[in-house]
Amino acid sequence: MAAAVVGEGDARQLKLLGMWASPFAHRVRVALQLKGLEYEHVEEDMGNKSELLLASNPVHKKVPVLLHGDSPIPESLVILEYLDDAFPGAGRQAILPADPYRRAVARFWAAYVDGKLHGMMLNALLGATEEERAAGTADTLAALDKLEGAFAECSGGKKEFFAGDEPGYLDIVLGGFVGWLRAWDKVGGVKLLDAGRIPRLTAWAARFAELDAAKEVTPDPDRIAEYARVLLARRAAAAAASE
Amino acid sequence: MAAAVVGEGDARQLKLLGMWASPFAHRVRVALQLKGLEYEHVEEDMGNKSELLLASNPVHKKVPVLLHGDSPIPESLVILEYLDDAFPGAGRQAILPADPYRRAVARFWAAYVDGKLHGMMLNALLGATEEERAAGTADTLAALDKLEGAFAECSGGKKEFFAGDEPGYLDIVLGGFVGWLRAWDKVGGVKLLDAGRIPRLTAWAARFAELDAAKEVTPDPDRIAEYARVLLARRAAAAAASE
Q: Which UniProt keywords apply (chains A, B) (predicted)?
């Protein structure tokens, strides 16, 4: 995170280091699109990371990184906040709600998605033993039940999105996972978006994927499933090498 | 997180559910003090959590929770953002920097403290094996090296605090850990704040602990060490019970 600070509201020279299957990169692309901000997308090969990625995010070496001029901003939640802070006038709406308490509720659930749901899904897919993977699946289903409740709480039960009539922060944060959630029957053998179990969240996911801002960047379930097989093969090879 | 939304800027009826040894509760107390906001502090017994805590934070059942009127706000980083959002005029300064890029840098390192440093310190203290604890200690020292670099980057190397001449967001976030960092030679047998190794961070920690806002709430090293022994005994009992 070099020191150069660009002028507020300067939308030139936005570059995103991303990767198509990353829920975290996905959410930033949706946010940039919703804000109406033009940017250059650079697809990273995570098996052969670019010098720019390594220099821009030396701490984590992960996507996404937004470059605003020469200033790198890693971490997707930090980027979402930055887009509202640096481009307050851009797009049809701010990403975050205006009301302080609604902002807090949205940030609470965003932290839940990244701090809990993500790790549970990783365990469900890549857990070392069958027991670990089964526990990961059970945890993921329980987390989605909680998010079903959060949807009712945030939207008042009558709106299209967490944020209301239009998608906002929490929609974008969870929306990054919609590609994986939709593909999970092919990836993990379990239907996560089950209208019988979580009707609101299932309908929300379908609505989110149909947004203009999401349509182009939400990965196809078959492509996700193929990528999951690559991850599983890599894990098996790593486990064999360490034995 | 019930739905009642209180009016912006209404500082009446702030109540904090905290616990003296929690770095996360500690940082909220410092922030409230720096903002000049009066609040009622409720000390939670984490072995016998109050009904109010369980009702206010049903997802995590953890401190801190700030209650603003009847509206509960869990999660310390969410609370810090809320204090700036709900009380923009309070105190001698905002918690977060005004510049969008400086905000992003501070949020990046705050996420690092909570997502990396905290887990490493837990491993160093409570890891199941001696190897795990040694790895936790090595990771913690490496993380503090990174934060030493972050201090130079954020403060320009010439300021008193991460935020500049006065403490701000990242000072408060890492400052919550100062009690534990100072006590670590008694807790984990290793001096973490070593002026020979991380001179800037060591001097910063001493300055932070001397702030009026921090002095009263930064726990004494001996009390932390005593509490760490309780945690270790609990872990040993839990391990024995599960065998």
A: Cytoplasm, Transferase
